[in-house]
Design a protein that fits this description.
The protein is of the alpha/beta class. It folds into two domains: 118 residues, Rossmann fold, CATH 3.40.50; 103 residues, Winged helix-like DNA-binding domain superfamily/Winged helix DNA-binding domain (Arc Repressor Mutant, subunit A), CATH 1.10.10.10. 38% of the residues lie in helices and 22% in strands. It contains eight helices and 13 strands. A five-stranded parallel beta sheet has the order 2-1-3-4-5, with helices on both faces. A five-stranded antiparallel beta sheet has the order 9-8-7-6-13, with helices on one face. Helix 6 packs across helix 8. The protein starts with 5 loop residues before the first strand and ends with a strand.
Length: 238
């Protein structure tokens, strides 16, 4: 029976790989390492992985390409990107294509560990079971919060990252209210992948692509000019 989260560190710097592997293992996290995309895929074929720490600058396929490929095949694995300290573009693109969080280099391993634990909690990897199942229904959609599952009106499961699920849950709980970006950050906890104004906009765009027939003419999440966002349907909890 699985008792601890499994972390995969993908970085071409052997010193960083060795440091993080030892640091995480001493703190109760099963840890594997890889130097590039091919090694990453080999590890993921051998064993289930809960979270990938993925460097942007890799030989061959970049971290951004690997992140995009994982999300394209609807992998539910959580992803934290490692980016150069001044590369804001990498951070924005990483969030847009499905990363759950990012940490700039150079970094303190303790900060990275805190980010990992926060993402795993949002994914359910380190969370205590909810005392009771809570299901929300809206416009034919079903959102099961205890299982962290979203099912479309056609009964097809839609895979969401931890940050996407948290934001949608906030919208559903506050259905038909106009929420500013600051309010959304506060209501979602203000950590990890939802930590600044631009991340809210990116996550809304990602939700629209996954949930709307026409993302440019949304029927679920409406942009309110000079206000923020409003979740339009009525949501019913069971």
């Amino acid at each position: 029976m699985k008792t601890e989260p499994h972390i995969l560190v993908v970085d071409d710097d052997r010193g960083i790989r060795d440091l993080l592997q030892e640091f995480f293992r001493k703190r109760g996290l099963a840890t594997s390492v890889a130097g590039d995309g091919a090694e990453m895929e080999a590890v993921m074929r051998r064993t289930p992985v809960d979270l990938v720490v993925l460097d942007v600058m890799l030989p061959g396929r970049s971290g951004l390409e690997l992140c995009r490929e994982l999300r394209a095949r609807q992998s539910p694995v959580a992803i934290i990107m490692l980016t150069a300290v001044n590369e804001t573009t990498d951070r924005v693109v990483g969030l847009e294509i499905g990363a759950d969080d990012y940490v700039p280099k150079p970094f303190d391993p303790r900060e990275l560990l805190a980010r990992i634990r926060a993402v795993l909690r949002r994914n359910g990897g380190e969370a205590k079971p909810l005392p009771q199942r809570q299901v929300w229904r809206f416009c034919g959609w079903t959102m099961d919060c205890s299982r962290r599952r979203l099912v479309a009106p056609d009964d097809v499961r839609v895979e969401l990252t931890a940050a996407e699920f948290n934001l949608l849950h906030t919208f559903v709980r506050c259905a038909q209210r106009v929420l500013t970006r600051d309010q959304l950050i506060e209501l979602t906890g203000g950590d990890g992948g939802i930590s600044y104004d631009r991340s809210i906009d990116i996550l809304v765009s990602r939700l629209r692509r996954k949930m709307e027939d026409n993302p440019k003419s949304p029927k679920l999440i409406q942009t309110v000019r000079s206000g923020g966002y409003q979740f339009l349907p009525e949501a019913v909890a069971e």
